[in-house]
Amino acid sequence: MVMKKALTIGLVLAMGVGLSACSSIRESRGYVIDGALVNSVQPGIDNRRSVEGTLGRPTFTSQYGEQTWYYVSSVSARRPFVRPRINTHSVLAVKFDNAGNVVSADLSGVDQVAYLSPDGDETPTLGRERTFLEDLFGNIGQVGAGAPGGAAGP
Predict the structure, then answer these.
(1) What are phi and psi of 50, to 5 degrees?
(2) With bands split at pLDDT 50, 70 and 90, how would you rate the model's confidence at 149?
(3) Chain centroid to CA 153
(4) CA torsion sign, 130 to 136 to 141 to 147?
(5) What is the pLDDT of residues 12-69, one digit of tens each?
(6) 130 contact partners, CB below 8 Å, separation of at least 6
(7) What is the CATH T-level fold of the domain 24-113, as seen in this structure?
(8) pTM score, whole prediction
(9) Where are any strands of DSSP class E within the chain?
(10) Residue 83 neighbours by CB distance under 10 Å
(11) How far apart are CA 83 and CA 27, in angstroms?
């Protein structure tokens, strides 16, 4: 009787461990967006220094055009042996004028994400295709052939 009870408990524990292995793993990447902090950034009131003090350093900044700081956040769920899936994705864009004052703070979500699907596993390039032997023996006779116009090298 004790052996049967121990076997039943062991089986229940094994099933519990097995089912817990199938649960998804949650991964947060990038900036963790806090709604209260995001709402505290006010256009016309805040500047670069106050935004950096409130939100911290941005994920990246714009290089051209309007000075904009971007805070990127992504949360994905991954099950064992399966590709990760993005659950939530958000980007906070804080735009500044030339004086460094906040012009706008816009929060966008996963609806603005562009999904790319590559076309095959080779990148097309200009030029002609060369075989392995052409790559291997293509420069024979080219090295040290002399300068144009028949003049010898130095």
Answers:
(1) -70, -35
(2) low
(3) 51
(4) positive
(5) 666 655 555 566 777 878 888 888 888 888 898 999 999 999 998 999 999 888 899 9
(6) 138
(7) Beta-lactamase Inhibitory Protein; Chain:B, domain 1 (3.30.1450)
(8) 0.59
(9) 25-30, 60-61, 67-78, 85-96, 102-108
(10) 7
(11) 13
Q: How far apart are CA 154 and CA 147, in angstroms?
A: 9
In the Cβ-directed half-sphere of 129, how many Cα atoms lie within 13 Å?
4
Contacts of 102 (CB under 8 A, 6+ apart): 41, 42, 43, 44, 45, 46, 47, 51, 94, 95, 96
Other CB atoms within a 10 A radius of the CB of residue 30 amount to 15
Residue with token string 């408990």: 9
C-alpha distance across the termini of the chain, in Å: 98
Distance CA 72, CA 90 (A): 6
